[in-house]
Specification:
By secondary structure, the protein is an alpha/beta fold. It is built from 12 helices and 25 strands. Strand 8 and strand 9 form a beta hairpin. The protein is globular and about 70 Å long.
Length: 466
């Protein structure tokens, strides 16, 4: 087939590369930077002349984009294409039935380039607005020993803890980890943005938060649900709305058979295949927002796979996911990752204040003006917030950053990212505001401005790939 692949920087080149290996011809359009591939004008002319058999576009492409509307060429998503590459549907081609609305695979016997699917023996895909990486790391505690873990922190061999490389979590980035897992007979845990590719045994949705994509013409949550509906089995993390569950007949909620009582997680699961697992474990991270959801989800997945999740008692914090360190007597709560948003910023500040001695659960409680009061000093908090990686799909808007600052009411705020410089016009109730270019300089500034306050807590909540 002759295929047009859109968006070079979000996986288009990777998809085209693998399709060409399978014997297809591809053109790629770099729809944002226009630095590689063919021009939009050339692609449009080709499409109008009915040269292309198929167009592959990411779900975040605006439905009004010119190359999606200049011909009757069928269009599938990057997610769909990746799933077909991995499971073998692209082995020798496919054809369209029912007025080009449905893909039907050509029988292997008719394929000129017969290449069998290279799907790992066990694979799990994870999507959601937040919590993906923490959940992925938690899963490694309930799976068999040998695996490939692909997240925004990097692609790692388990249990060797060997970092192979770091890549984005676009669907196309799942292809090589899947091929490696297949070749080395390892399981695969794969984090993906804006949905799943659907080649896995189980897919996980970590949250039901929504935001606009595709030029604000689509809902991110709707796109995730659309891809999940086509999966074999879906596991929903705690907090995912009942409305989302009602959309999917193939979904179960982790909370259906896993419960929490303080720092103790209990589980009881049985199914028609004879799996019967019951038990519990304790972990102090079950008291921390962001971790308890991940641990409950991992416990549920272990039960579904017939693996007792008791090993999760030993799970430790992941860097950049509510991890805690010290600089002198100051606590540093690091929650800077690709899923950082206003909600996780507020949760991180609440966690910092709990650790430093704040008894109230209300973030907005006023701190005493009596600077000599030792308890007041313990409640001081410096917030580093913003966006270092501007190309992360979920974004971190000026309004969301402003909301978080006003809700947290830190001693001072250090804002990271060029796109947030206009935030200075917002009313922050006399909270001192500083601006820095990236997370590293923001953290250094926070340490500098709190030099005379050893008991100050620093919260890092910058959206970045790590």
């Amino acid at each position: 087939m002759y295929i047009l692949v859109l968006d070079a920087i979000h996986g288009g080149l990777e998809i085209a590369h693998h399709l060409e290996i399978l014997g297809h011809k591809c053109d790629v359009v770099d729809i944002y930077r226009h630095e590689c591939g063919i021009s939009v004008e050339t692609a449009k002319k080709n499409a109008q002349n009915k040269i292309y058999d198929l167009i592959i576009a990411p779900v975040h492409t605006s439905p009004d984009y010119t190359l999606l509307n200049c011909s009757n060429t069928p269009v599938i998503s990057h997610h769909k294409a990746v799933g077909m590459i991995i499971d073998g549907s692209f082995c020798g081609g496919f054809e369209y039935k029912n007025n080009k609305k449905a893909i039907e695979k050509i029988p292997d016997s008719e394929c000129k380039n017969k290449i069998l699917g290279r799907k790992p023996h066990l694979s799990i895909e994870i999507t959601g607005a937040r919590g993906k990486t923490t959940t992925a790391f938690a899963l490694t505690y309930v799976l068999p020993k040998k695996g490939i873990l692909h997240t925004s922190k990097g692609t790692v061999k388990i249990p060797e803890d060997e970092i192979l490389y770091k890549k984005s979590i676009t669907p196309a980035s799942a292809i090589n980890p899947a091929l490696l897992a297949f070749n080395e007979e390892r399981w695969l845990v794969c984090e993906e943005s804006l949905g799943v590719s659907g080649f896995s045994d189980i897919c996980i949705l970590t949250s039901s938060e929504d935001y606009p994509i595709a030029g604000k013409k689509k809902s991110a949550l709707d796109e995730k649900i659309k891809s999940l509906k086509k999966c074999r089995k879906v596991l929903l993390a705690p907090g995912v709305s009942k409305t989302v569950k009602s959309c999917m007949k193939n979904a179960v909620s982790a909370e259906d058979f896993v419960s929490l009582d303080g720092d103790k997680c209990s589980y009881s699961y049985y199914d028609e295949d004879g799996i019967n697992i019951k038990g519990s474990f304790s972990n102090p991270l079950l008291l921390v927002e962001g971790y308890k959801e991940a641990l409950i989800t991992a416990a549920a997945l272990g039960c579904i796979l017939g693996k007792n999740p008791a090993r999760l008692f030993n799970f430790i914090p992941v860097e950049g996911r509510m991890s805690v360190s010290k600089d002198g007597q100051r606590l540093i709560i690091d929650n800077s990752n690709s899923g950082a948003n206003k909600m996780t910023a507020v949760m991180a500040a609440l966690h910092a204040r709990k650790l430093s001695g704040k008894k109230s659960n209300q973030i907005s409680d006023k701190i005493s003006d009596d600077k000599s009061d030792e308890k007041s000093k313990k409640l001081e908090l410096t917030l580093v917030i913003g966006i270092e990686a501007e190309n992360i799909c979920e974004g971190f808007s000026l309004d969301d950053v402003a909301f978080a600052i006003n809700e947290i009411k830190p001693q001072c705020a250090i804002i990271v990212g060029d796109s947030l410089k206009d935030i200075n016009d917002k009313n922050f109730s006399d909270i001192p505001i500083y601006f820095e270019k990236d997370l590293k300089s923001g953290k250094k500034k926070a340490i500098d401005v709190t030099e005379d306050s050893d008991l100050n807590s620093i919260v890092l909540c910058v959206k970045t790939w790590r």
